[in-house]
Amino acid sequence: MASAETTIRLTVAQAIVRYLMNQYVEIDGTRTRICGGGFGIFGHGNVPCLGEALYPVQDEMPLYRGQNEQSMGFAAAAYAKYHLRRRFMFCTASAGPGTANLLTAAALAHANRLPMLMLCGDTFLTRLPDPVLQQLEHFGNPALGLNDAFKAVTRYWDRITHPAQVIQTLPAALATMLDPADCGPAFIALPQDVQGWAYDYPESFFAPRTHRIRRQAPDADEVAAAADMLRGAERPMIIAGGGVQYSGAVAELTAFAERHGIPVVETIAGRANMLATHDLNTGPIGVTGSDSANAIAEAADVILAVGTRLQDFTTGSWTAFAKDARFIGLNVGRHDASKHLSQPVVGDAKLGLEALGAALSGYVAPAQWTDKARAERKAWDAYVAENVAPGNRPNSYAQAIGVVNDLCDPRDRIVAAAGGLPAEVTANWRTLEIGTVDVEFGFSCMGYEIAGGWGARIAQSEREPGQDTIVFTGDGSYLLMNSDIYSSVLTRKKMIVLVLDNGGFAVINKLQNNTGNKSFNNLIADCPTVPEAYAVDFESHARSMGADAVTVANAAELAEAFKRAKASDKTSVIVMQVDPYEGWTTEGHAWWEVGTPEVSDNPDVREKHAEIEAERAKQRQGV
What we know:
Elements: E1 7-11, H1 12-21, E2 23-27, E3 30-33, E4 35-40, H2 47-54, E5 63-65, H3 69-82, E6 88-93, H4 97-100, H5 103-111, E7 116-122, E8 156-159, H6 166-178, E9 185-191, H7 192-196, E10 198-202, E11 209-211, H8 220-231, E12 236-240, H9 243-246, H10 250-260, E13 264-266, E14 281-284, H11 291-299, E15 302-306, H12 312-315, E16 326-331, H13 334-337, E17 343-346, H14 349-359, H15 367-388, H16 397-407, E18 413-417, H17 421-428, E19 437-440, H18 448-463, E20 469-474, H19 475-480, H20 484-491, E21 496-501, H21 506-514, H22 538-544, E22 548-552, H23 555-567, E23 572-577, H24 603-615
Parallel strand pairs: 2-11, 4-5, 4-6, 6-7, 7-9, 8-9, 12-13, 12-15, 13-14, 15-16, 16-17, 18-19, 18-20, 20-21, 21-23, 22-23
Antiparallel strand pairs: 1-10, 2-3
């Protein structure tokens, strides 16, 4: 007769923590806990039970106290991105507004396909004390609550209604977060009473387990069809997306391109797939790209898109390519592999490139095509060198980027998001080492910069403690979310933050002007409800949170301040005013579809509408 399963009596909260403590992944031959810890703000919805469960393991599973739940989620996303989706952090928030603050962060993680586990308080399952503090009542549907809003922005969602449910829910959530195709945030709603309910859990559920990220081999017929297309190409091109790095396929991508002489362009998420100096790196593509990459894209006849979801900033709203160009989609996700009538190769990028390379044996792109790509990149490099150089002209984003690029360590990590800086970093940054650039543009979310920098620095300190995390942010994003400067000071996770102040939301003002509209409500000086513009003292504000801070007048002073920041062990904030009108990178832009008024009393708006619509003739039709 078989012996009975040994059990252990735990609360729901204790079971969740114990399970997470025993889940591991192998990274570079080292067994590492998958969950690196968590970010938490306690409230009545999570402190009595989940707080009690986390307290005994605080040394092994650190809980970072956040200042804002949204920024906690951004930090968790940046942490996962640094670890190439092989590790994640959890975020815990109380029922009500604390949890609601995580919605934007969950959407960011969903758009960027990043793992993040949310353990959030919920109303009482028994409903005996209803309506409780911070509860949203739906009179015709009492089961509906705030936490249901997360169904739209998560890959996995569940509400624990019985302690035994944990045995099914946690492995399912973890499987989703580790799945290369379906990776994204997981949300588990924890009713306040259920968190403390106990159950006799089988001890085997908590046995240590080492997980391995699935590598899906591509279908042989799909590989053969793709190889036939490439073999007949006269002007092939590779688009390298963020999935190249998540797959660990950088070496395979480089070897494939070199063996077949195919130019490579990078998406925003795929920046730092290749060094800036690599012979076949033709530059970033698309709306915020380079003249070199866009010139090659416009002429290419067969395009191999590897690990990219082909968003509009990559494709120029599908005007960046010839209408008769043919696509091959090598992607672990079927949805992405099949976009725009691509020949799909559904599978892991590393295995897919190896299989496609074997099937293409002997093929080399025509030399004149590869030489054209090299010449285009050489011309673009000359433009960038002039664009980032200090000179007798107004301060610009590009100049600040050039200063940092010249003085940083090759392994320092660069973080940017939203506003004008993603375009400027993408176009002007010269990659010094693989995988060192995090430009969050999947959700293009203001506020990610400093919070994401903190999360990236936590991850970086686990593997590269001697390197720096460098954050580029504008004044608008700084004002939206800056409290993790204080978090970095408290936790001694040093960052270098460059605040480039252009007096408001300058990039949207630029878009406003470029569509024929007058400046309105974007720059502080153009807000009709502001009687007198007031300049924020960012230096004093940063100092008040414990950071070193300095304001510089120009690129030369920025260089000296950056050197001091590099030498310091404290978070440093460097503030420099930049011109809101002059100094933008003017080259390298593909067309981007934006909605413009078909009818307007403003003749400038009508003229711009006509210009923009004329470009639509280049737009590919597809699915």
